[in-house]
Specification:
This protein has four helices and five strands. By secondary structure, it is α+β, with helices and mostly antiparallel strands. It has a three-stranded antiparallel β-sheet with strand order 3-4-5, covered by helices on one side.
């Protein structure tokens, strides 16, 4: 889950965002009580100077580890993926909110680092994981006006293929996991 950016943009109270996160976890667990959940500490946001976006994003990101620890269970753990650290809103977005090619690559790299240890059966620890091959950067990045595919990244572990696709128009990440040999 990489959710909450629009809420922080619209100055929604952090407590309301956390209620929505908790509701989503409940719905996911109703569907699959053994679901593994990975939630992102969201990227920085600064589309304009109307409100203090940094304070909103930082407050949300600060809440997530404790929230995850409180709701995690042995059958359905919740892991936190740090998408914030190292992300530069001036360099890694094209408008202060939506990732540029470099921002998309950073997001994919962070999901990769978070998912590979989970899929291999290891509890994620801050370890160095080889970076996947970067997709060549286009000469011009158009601003999305409709659903447009952004970055696609595939990586293979011994038992899994992880395909990560950043959808610029929808501002979402699609992650496909395929178990090899099944």
């Amino acid at each position: 889950m990489h959710l909450g950016t629009n809420d922080c943009w619209q100055n929604v109270k952090i407590s309301e965002i956390m209620k929505a996160y908790t509701k989503l976890v409940g719905q996911m667990r109703e569907n699959n009580p053994n679901i593994i959940i990975v939630v992102a500490q969201i990227i920085p946001l600064h589309p304009d100077d109307k409100i203090n976006y940094a304070a909103n994003v930082n407050a949300l990101n600060k809440e997530l580890p404790g929230w995850a620890a409180e709701l995690t269970t042995k059958a359905s753990p919740i892991y936190v993926c740090d998408q914030y650290t190292g992300f530069d809103v001036d360099v890694d977005t094209y408008d202060g909110a939506h990732p540029s090619q470099t921002g998309s690559q950073k997001i994919c790299d962070n999901w990769y680092k978070a998912l590979v240890p989970i899929l291999s059966g290891n509890v994620p620890e801050p370890t160095e994981i080889p970076k996947p091959t970067q997709t060549p950067e286009p000469t011009e990045i158009p601003k999305p006006t409709s659903v447009t595919a952004g970055l696609v990244l595939e990586a293979t572990t011994s038992n899994w293929v992880v395909a990560i696709q950043w959808q610029l128009g929808l501002r979402m990440i699609l992650i496909k996991l395929l178990q090899i040999g099944h």
